[in-house]
C-alpha cells in the first residue's frame, strides 16, 4: 500500500490528485478508470479535511484485479450517505462514491476512521 500523509489543508488537494494520478499511471491503470479514482479520492479527502481532524492520510493499494483507495483521519465521526438537493453546491461526494465504486465503506480505526472504496480494474 502506498500512502501520502497530509497536513489537512484544502490547498493540498491538487498535489494529492497529482500523487494519485502518478501512482495510477505507474501501474498502467487506464485513463477512464484513473479519472474516476482521482475524482473519488479527491472527494473523500476533501470531506476528511472539511469534516474530520488530523492526522490525514491517503492510501492506494493495487491487488487482486482492483484498486483500493483509503482516506484516514483522526475523527471517529462516520460520514453518512445522504441525498443532495440538485440545487446544492456540495454534499455529493459520498453519492458519487456509492454510484461509481465497486465497493465502499467506512471503518473505525483506533481513535479515527477510514473511508475507502474499491474499483475493479475492468470497471471502466
Summarize the structure.
35% of the residues lie in helices and 30% in strands.
Question: What would you note in describing this structure?
Answer:
The structure is a single chain. This protein is α+β, with helices and mostly antiparallel strands and 124 residues long. It has a single domain (2-120), classed as Histidine kinase-like ATPase, C-terminal domain (Heat Shock Protein 90, 2-Layer Sandwich). It is built from three helices and five strands, in the order E-H-H-E-E-H-E-E. It has helices at 13-26, 31-51, 93-100; strands spanning 2-6, 56-63, 66-73, 103-109, 112-120. Helix 1 packs antiparallel against helix 2 and helix 2 (31-51) packs antiparallel against helix 3 (93-100). The longest helix has 21 residues, at 31-51. It is globular, with a radius of gyration of 14 Å. It starts with a strand and ends with a strand.
Characteristic key phrases:
globular; 5 strands; alpha+beta; five-stranded antiparallel beta sheet
Q: Please give the count of helices.
A: 3
CATH uppermost class: Alpha Beta
Portion of residues within helices: 25-40%
The parts where pLDDT drops under 50 for at least 5 residues are none
Order of helices and strands: EHHEEHEE
Strand and helix map with partners:
Elements: E1 2-6, H1 13-26, H2 31-51, E2 56-63, E3 66-73, H3 93-100, E4 103-109, E5 112-120
Antiparallel strand pairs: 1-2, 2-3, 3-5, 4-5
Amino acid at each position: 500500500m502506498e500512502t501520502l500523509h497530509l497536513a489537512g489543508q484544502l490547498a493540498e488537494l491538487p498535489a494529492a490528485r497529482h500523487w494519485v494520478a502518478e501512482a495510477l499511471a505507474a501501474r498502467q491503470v487506464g485513463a477512464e478508470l484513473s479519472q474516476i479514482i482521482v475524482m473519488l479520492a479527491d472527494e473523500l479527502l476533501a470531506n476528511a479535511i472539511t469534516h474530520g481532524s488530523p492526522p490525514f492520510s491517503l492510501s492506494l493499494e493495487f491487488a487482486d484485479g482492483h484498486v483500493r483507495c483509503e482516506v484516514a483521519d483522526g475523527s471517529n465521526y462516520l460520514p453518512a450517505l445522504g441525498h443532495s438537493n440538485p440545487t446544492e453546491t456540495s454534499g455529493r461526494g459520498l453519492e458519487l462514491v456509492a454510484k461509481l465504486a465497486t465497493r465502499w465503506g467506512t471503518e473505525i480505526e483506533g481513535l479515527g476512521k477510514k473511508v475507502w472504496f474499491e474499483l475493479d480494474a475492468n470497471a471502466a
